[in-house]
């Protein structure tokens, strides 16, 4: 039997064919694994590089974001501190404003009180001025009446009226004594701020002067008062008693 014949016989053998197919499958699998390994290695490397680039980009973005956040945080802190400072200043200004307003109100109140006092003083001064003017007018009227009566008194009663310093009037009587017509009898009279007559002195003294003074203050009848005074002076020399 030739070699060709044996080979063909061997190929036809089932076991040989099975072994051959198995061997071919192993070779194919090995080649596939080798090819797939190279492909996977390349893909993994590519994915790894891509992942590194992605992570680098992400880290850069995160770092940039952190920087921005840090800047924003610093700005926020700065704003907070600035706001705190401004709030403190505003409180101080508000306190100063309230103090100034209170001071102004006190001054306005004091000013109003001063105006009230000034108005009251003006009214009081006006009343006092009116009172003084009224008193002056009354005094002038009385002095005018006295001056009108002066000549009459001097002629009929031998009376001389002299104005003495201190708003006093001196009344000088003559022709009281028949023995000595030139002998003088005097009394000093004053009109006070309430327009009340007061006898300051009398020479010679008269026992009834206090009574005559009260009558003058009650009746304000000056002519009758002078006549009564003269009558009392005459009575001193004649010894007669007057009612």
TrEMBL record:
Taxon lineage: Eukaryota, Metazoa, Chordata, Craniata, Vertebrata
Pfam families xref list: Spindle_Spc25
Predominant localisation class: nucleus
Domain Chromosome segregation protein Spc25 C-terminal as annotated: residue spans: 164-234
UniProt subcellular location: Chromosome, Centromere; Nucleus; Chromosome, Centromere, Kinetochore
Biological-process GO terms, alphabetical: cell division; chromosome segregation
Family membership noted in the UniProt record: Belongs to the SPC25 family.
Its job: Acts as a component of the essential kinetochore-associated NDC80 complex, which is required for chromosome segregation and spindle checkpoint activity. Required for kinetochore integrity and the organization of stable microtubule binding sites in the outer plate of the kinetochore. The NDC80 complex synergistically enhances the affinity of the SKA1 complex for microtubules and may allow the NDC80 complex to track depolymerizing microtubules.
GO cellular component: Ndc80 complex; nucleus
Keyword Ribosomal protein (UniProt): no
Keywords: Cell cycle, Cell division, Centromere, Chromosome, Coiled coil, Kinetochore, Mitosis, Nucleus
UniProt name for this protein: Kinetochore protein SPC25
Subunit organization: Component of the NDC80 complex, which is composed of ndc80, cdca1, spbc24 and spbc25. The NDC80 complex interacts with mis12 and zwint.
